[in-house]
Amino acid sequence: MINFEDEIEKFQPSLEIEQAEDVIYNNDLTDITDILKDLLKEKSKTYYDERG
Fold first, then answer.
1. Does residue 2 sit within a domain?
2. Is residue 23 part of a domain?
3. pLDDT in single tens digits along all 52 residues of the chain
4. Is 3 exposed, middle or buried (0-12, 13-18, 19+ CB in 10 A)?
């Protein structure tokens, strides 16, 4: 029978997984939210420039 407590104690995460997490978390990607914010900011700036 498998002793889960022993298996958990022996568990060591893969270095590849940890390296992938670092790359993912530290990567500054533009997502749809960033694009929409920029578009709205540009739109409001244009609106206020036209209104004076």
1. no
2. yes
3. 899 999 999 998 777 888 888 888 888 778 899 999 999 999 888 777 777 6
4. exposed
